[in-house]
Design brief:
Elements lengths: L2 E5 H9 L2 E5 L2 E4 L1 E6 L9 H7 L5 E4 L3 H14 L5 E6 L3 H4 L2 H9 L4 E7 L33 E4 L6 H12 L7 E7 L6 E5 L6 E4 L7 H12 L4 E5 L1 H5 L3 H11 L3 E3 L14 E4 L6 H9 L2 E5 L5 H4 L11 E5 L3 H4 L5 E3 L3 H15 L8 H17 L9 H12 L5 E4 L3 H9 L8 E3 L8 H12 L5 E6 H6 L3 H7 L5 E6 L4 H9 L28 H8 L2 E5 L2 H13 L4 E6 L24 H14 L6
Parallel strand pairs: 2-11, 4-5, 4-6, 6-7, 7-9, 8-9, 12-13, 12-15, 13-14, 15-16, 16-17, 18-19, 18-20, 20-21, 21-23, 22-23
Antiparallel strand pairs: 1-10, 2-3
Helix pairs in contact: 1-2, 3-5, 3-17, 7-13, 9-13, 10-14, 15-16
Length: 621
């Protein structure tokens, strides 16, 4: 057997460099590069292997470990999970900084390979700098924290263990039904240890993405269920995008006159002007989608995990005769809410259902309800886009200017947390494929700027626009520097509404007085944060890093600043001063939250009673 003598770290990179996927006959190089911040735990191990250059993987220097991991997630998500990046760090705090990003990847089913360094496997120098020691179990390290947020976790305690660990990592990273964060913990001594690896370990390996077709018996039962219903409603989830099933959904919905609503992950798979597209569905959905979903006698969930925002905490579907049917590769998701599960690839599943239902001559019983709901919602979006307010700009007006006048039809928007995801799911009109990049499986504050760098890497010929609130921007924006360093231009539109206004709204909606959610000064040592708003100049932050920065307080200033930002050769930011509390509100929706049942505030107790009344109408499983 031919062997190649290499360090474990060198072998890992050579292996990753030779991984490919094949989907529908198209072969794609899977691992595109590595992002990292060097520390003592890996700069002379994996760092040496990266520097030596016996691979074609691009290396990008991160500025914050969580941020660089979100770059990797943004890249993989925009690539529809067909290409990935690996991320690496030193031990201890560097590794732990990536745990949040690992959770974000797993919650969204996005493949990211995490390579955190470990304390010494030999234990001889213990305790080393940044090592966590547990007296009850010496095998535990900081990297055990990744276990709860990883789809696969392993520790390479001997160099030869790399082979089984790496192949298992690829198994999960390429699994369309159950992917997410994969963590391989790399002890700092083992990274540099030599082993005679079999040469075949480094040969080109092609992972075939096998589409799962619908079982004939399941197809018959699904067709029977749909045919028995008059008013079905489809939920378009992220699986529609990742399966490239947009055309199939388009045909299916139009052929049988079945309206559909979109989850955050599924929005934009089919363009906004499709006659069956009712827009966002659920808590942050449109009146059109939610009215039709409320009265539907069948909910067809395609590639969705049916989270509480999508289902309004299982309350949205109010028809007493409603049934649930799901098409999903992931059986865990397919069985939710007592659904009839169709375990199949979205593209093949929809195609098979379309043929069978056409053969049966099926048509829904909708008359004018679909067109009427769309017309009503289109008028409402137009109203929201045109709102004029005394004293400043509303958030919905800003989005209207961006969507209708400034951002090109093929421009990609990136957002993740606060009220912006709610607003864009409701009102953003997607006019091209792949323009809607919203992370809402984890709603991770600080994702936006970093992920936009990854999105731009994935689509270098398209403009990328970050929509971010000041609260989330302050959480993490360090990869703005990376965008400048790597000449990866992003455009940041910062909605400065003085703090955490999304949660401020939730707080007050449950009868709780305003408390600690706004960026206000403290009047004195005993007072709450009730003073004047902090006068923060975010445009200066961008300019300080070497980018372009602008401030806008009027519609005209937004237009001028946007033009200058886009024309600039470097990443830029517009700080738009926005009136607090001017985001859109819910439409025929409800969200179950844990409001206190006893409080000194009568308004809180009233809100708790309201929750109880809604819970009685929600599905219990």
């Amino acid at each position: 057997m031919k062997t190649k003598r290499m360090t474990m770290a060198q072998a890992l990179l050579k292996f990753l460099d030779n991984q490919y996927i094949n989907m529908d006959g198209e072969e794609i190089k899977f691992v595109q590069g590595v992002l990292g911040i060097f520390g003592h735990g890996m700069v002379i191990g994996l760092g040496e292997a990266l520097e030596s250059g016996d691979h074609s993987l691009r290396f990008i220097q991160g500025k914050n470990e969580q941020g660089m991991a979100h770059i990797a997630m943004g890249f993989a998500k925009q690539k529809k999970r067909k290409q990935i990046m690996a991320v690496t760090s030193s031990i201890g705090p560097g590794a732990l900084n990536m745990v949040t990003a690992a959770g974000t990847a797993t919650a969204n089913r996005i493949p990211v390979l995490f390579l955190p360094s470990e304390a010494y496997a030999s234990r001889q120098p213990d305790p080393v700098l940044q090592q966590i020691e547990q007296t009850y179990d010496y095998n535990i390290t900081a990297n055990d924290a990744f276990k709860s947020v990883s789809k696969y976790w392993d520790r390479i305690a001997r160099p030869e263990q790399l082979m089984t660990a790496a192949i298992n990592a690829m198994r999960v990273l390429t699994d369309p039904s159950d992917t997410g964060a994969v963590t391989l913990a790399l002890p700092q001594d083992v990274q540099g240890e030599v082993y005679d690896y079999p040469a075949e370990f480094f040969e080109k390996r092609v992972h075939y993405i096998q589409r799962r077709n619908i079982d004939s018996e399941a197809l018959d039962k699904a067709v029977e269920l749909i045919a028995s219903k008059k008013r079905p409603f489809i939920i378009c989830g992220g699986g529609v995008k990742y399966s490239d099933a947009a055309e199939e959904l388009d045909e299916f919905a139009e052929a049988f006159r079945i309206p559909f609503g979109e989850t955050q992950a599924g929005k934009g798979a089919v363009l906004f002007d499709h006659p069956m597209n009712m827009g966002g569905a659920g808590l942050t959905g449109s009146s059109a989608a939610n009215k039709l979903a409320r009265d539907a006698d069948l909910i067809i969930g395609i590639g969705t995990k049916l989270n509480d925002f999508c289902t309004c905490s299982k309350w949205l579907y109010q028809n007493d005769d409603v049934s649930m049917l799901t098409i999903n590769l992931n059986s865990f998701d397919a069985y939710k809410m007592n659904s009839f599960p169709v375990l199949a690839d979205a593209k093949l599943g929809i195609k098979a259902l379309t043929k069978a239902l056409k053969d049966k001559g099926y048509q829904s019983a909708y008359q004018n309800e679909i067109a009427d709901a769309r017309k009503e919602w289109d008028s409402e979006v137009d109203r929201l886009y045109a709102i004029e307010m005394d004293g400043g700009l509303s958030q919905s007006r800003i989005l209207g200017e961006l969507n209708e006048k400034l951002i090109p039809d093929d421009g990609i928007i990136v957002t993740a947390s606060g009220s912006l995801p709610s607003d864009v799911q409701r009102v953003w009109r997607c006019r091209s494929e792949g323009v809607y990049h919203v992370e809402y499986g984890f709603s991770c504050m600080g994702y936006e700027v970093a992920a936009a760098v990854g999105v731009k890497m994935a689509e270098p010929h398209r403009d990328v626009y970050v929509l971010v609130g000041d609260g989330s921007f302050n959480m993490l924006h360090s990869e703005f520097i990376t965008s400048l360093q790597e000449d990866i231009k992003i455009n940041v539109v910062l909605i400065d509404n003085h703090g955490f206004q999304c949660i401020h709204n939730l707080q007050r909606s449950q009868g709780i007085p305003s408390f600690a959610n706004e960026y206000r000064r403290r009047e004195n040592s005993t007072e709450r944060l009730t003073g004047k708003y902090l006068p923060i100049d975010y445009a200066m932050v961008a300019r300080g890093y070497g980018g372009s920065g602008f401030t806008a307080k009027t519609v005209a200033e937004i237009g001028r600043s946007f033009k200058e930002m886009v024309e600039s050769k470097v990443s830029g930011l517009i700080d738009i001063k926005t009136l607090p509390g001017t985001m859109t509100d819910g439409y025929h929706a409800w969200w179950r939250v844990g409001t206190a049942q006893i409080s000194k505030h009568e308004s809180v107790e009233a809100a708790a009673k309201d929750i109880k009344s809604h819970v009685m109408k929600a599905r219990q499983y």
